[in-house]
Amino acid sequence: MRGVRAGPGRALTVAAPPLPVRDGLGPDRLRLPVTDPARTILGFLHRAEPGEDWQRHVAAGELVDEHGRPVTEDTGYQPGRFVYFYREPPPEVPVPFPVTVLHRDEGLVVVDKPHFLATIPRGAHIRETVVVRLRRELGLPELVPVHRLDRMTAGVLLCTVDPALRGLYQQLFERQRVRKVYEAIAPYRPGLEFPRTVRSRIRKRHGELTAVEEPGEANSETWIELVERRGALARYRLHPRTGRTHQLRLHLNSLGAPIVGDNFYPRLRRRAPDDFSDPLRLLARTVEFDDPRTGRRRRFDSGLTLGF
After folding, report:
1. Fewer CB under 10 Å: which end of the chain, C or N?
2. Residue 61, phi then psi, degrees to nearest 5
3. Measured between alpha carbons, how far is 85 from 308 in angstroms, rounded to an integer?
4. Which domain holds residue 135?
């Protein structure tokens, strides 16, 4: 994941690779298998990933071991160790929406993330992510999100720029000491009373795009308010008590009110990479917490709006 790694509770921890961030991206890492018969590291890499220009990496001094030592033609194979290098990502469709800075100080950057832009480099989305954009635009190579918003969700995203402060803010999210408020546009359900609390057991299998609700003890909870109605649609305010994957989307869908623009629930619908016409109407409106550095209450509100 190019220097950013997901930790418990969807907070983020940061590895310390021996190569620095370059052009907003950290290096890739490969583990050398314990049982491979290769004589040299380069011999293994040529066989394992023949499409990569390993000679170029070696010539530039940009293929290193976990201690930052350059790998050469003759560097012996080291079973179980790691090597690092810069991998050029494939072309991506540009996301035509800006990341707006809401607040910036010596330790924090708070932004409005647009719909369709991923938070961290992962899978098919590497350069077109909040992390890479902000590192490049603001000149902050150590910037890392404290939490994560789904690619299709817009709104307030909190980032740290000082590695010494990351743990303090990550713990706020891990220990559920952050008040988060979301807004969504979804069908109006005349037979339902609001406000109401929705609880369910959510399970997300590794490698699957969607999560499911299943029988068993609830591990997710959302308090939902009806804010306004316009014809067949309504604006809802959502207060998640937990942070399960796709929790808000699943909870509204379970009420018969799937969020407008949701291509995952109730049915998975594939979307073309360059189709930005129908965003998920889900917005992280507010993030509020006691600052662990100062003890002062802080609140950040999105400047974006959800249209009907």
Report:
1. C
2. 70, 25
3. 46
4. 100-301
Percent of the chain scored above 90 by pLDDT? 93
**Mean pLDDT of the region 52-60:** 96
pLDDT in tens, 221-259: 999 999 999 999 999 999 999 999 999 999 999 999 999
Give catalytic status of residue 150 as yes or no. Answer: yes
Q: Identify which of 117, 116, 105 has the alpha carbon closest to the alpha carbon of residue 158.
A: 105
pTM exceeds 0.70 for this model: yes
- Tell me the CA distances in angstroms from 303 to 72, 105, 111, 145, 300, one per residue in order: 51, 19, 10, 19, 10
Asked if residue 245 belongs to a domain, the reply is: yes
Residue 22: which of 141, 138, 195, 105 has the closest Cα? 141
Question: Do the domain assignments include residue 213?
Answer: yes
Q: What is the pLDDT of residues 111-133, one digit of tens each?
A: 999 999 999 999 999 999 999 99
Please pick, among 36, 65, 74, 150, the residue that the annotation labels catalytic: 150
Q: How far is CA 289 from CA 59, 173, 293, 298, in A?
A: 49, 10, 11, 6
Contact 27, 60 (CB under 8 A): no
Please check whether residue 184 lies inside any domain of the structure. Answer: yes
Provide the residue type at 83 as one letter: V
Pull the structure tokens for residue 30.
């490969």
